Structure formats: structure tokens, C-alpha cells
Amino acid sequence: MLSELGSLLTYSPRGQSEVSRNSRRVCYGVKAGDPQTLRLVAQRLRENINRDDVLALLFGAKVTLVPMPRSTPLVQGALWPAQKICDALMQVGVAEQTNPL
Fold first, then answer.
1. What are the distances in angstroms from CA 27 to CA 42, 50, 64, 85, 90?
2. CA distance linking residue 57 with residue 75, whole number of Å
3. Is the pLDDT reported for residue 10 higher than 80?
4. pLDDT of 27-59, one tens digit each?
5. How many CB atoms lie within 10 A of CB 4?
6. Which of 24, 59, 62, 89 has its CA 20 to 30 A from that of 49?
7. Residue 49 and residue 94 in contact, taking contact as beta carbons nearer than 8 Å
8. Taking residues 74-84, what's their average pLDDT?
9. Can you list the alpha helix ranges (DSSP code H) found in the chain?
10. Percentages helix, strand, coil for the chain, rounded to the nearest 5?
11. In 3D, which of 32, 27, 30 has the Cα closest to residue 13?
């Protein structure tokens, strides 16, 4: 039963500051399934879980991550960014398993 829902990242699609440009770089890296970007994002989340009670409620040893489906049907071998994010989060130990819909 789903009891909590959260979002990992936000980004600035048009901002011109350094923070805005970095947010787009990370967003595009995640969407492209870049392993280095995914690993960094997962590690940053793991670090923040220890400092944030709300995040600690969303993640942990008994958590199952459900990657959201794409807006278009999946084709065999196609990139599924949500699944890649879940895999990266599991690799750093913030969830027990994933369960694709």
C-alpha cells in the first residue's frame, strides 16, 4: 500500500544563473541515464536522508521503489529513466527493491 509519495529533483528550465544551468545539466543527465550523474544523485540523496526526517520516512530497508512509466509505451531495449533512478537508489542502499508497474 502506498503511504508516502515524494519527488527527488526539480530543475529550472529557463533560468540563467549557475544554479539553474547546473540543475538542467543534472536533469538531462538523469533523463539520459548517465551512470555518473545517477550515482551522484543517489549518493546525495543518501547523505540527505540522514539529515532530514521527511526523507527518512520515504526511504529505508523496507521500501519498494516503483518507477513511473514513460508517457509513451516502452520499447524493448529503450531507456527507462525512472527505472535507472530506482536502480541507482538501490545501489546506494536507500531502498530494498523496485517493482515496475
1. 13, 23, 23, 12, 19
2. 34
3. no
4. 899 989 999 999 999 999 999 888 878 888 888
5. 9
6. 24
7. yes
8. 87
9. 18-31, 35-49, 53-58, 81-91
10. 45, 5, 50
11. 27
| 101: confidence class by pLDDT, cuts 50, 70, 90 | confident
CA distances from 95 to 37, 66, 91 (A): 19, 11, 9
In three-state secondary structure terms, 65 is strand
First to last CA, the chain: 14
Contact status, residue 30 vs residue 38, Cβ threshold 8 Å: yes
pLDDT given at position 1: 47
The rounded distance, in Å, linking the Cα atoms of 75 and 97 is 23
Q: Which three cell numbers stand for residue 48?
A: 540527505
Backbone angles phi, psi at 65, to 5 degrees: -90, 135
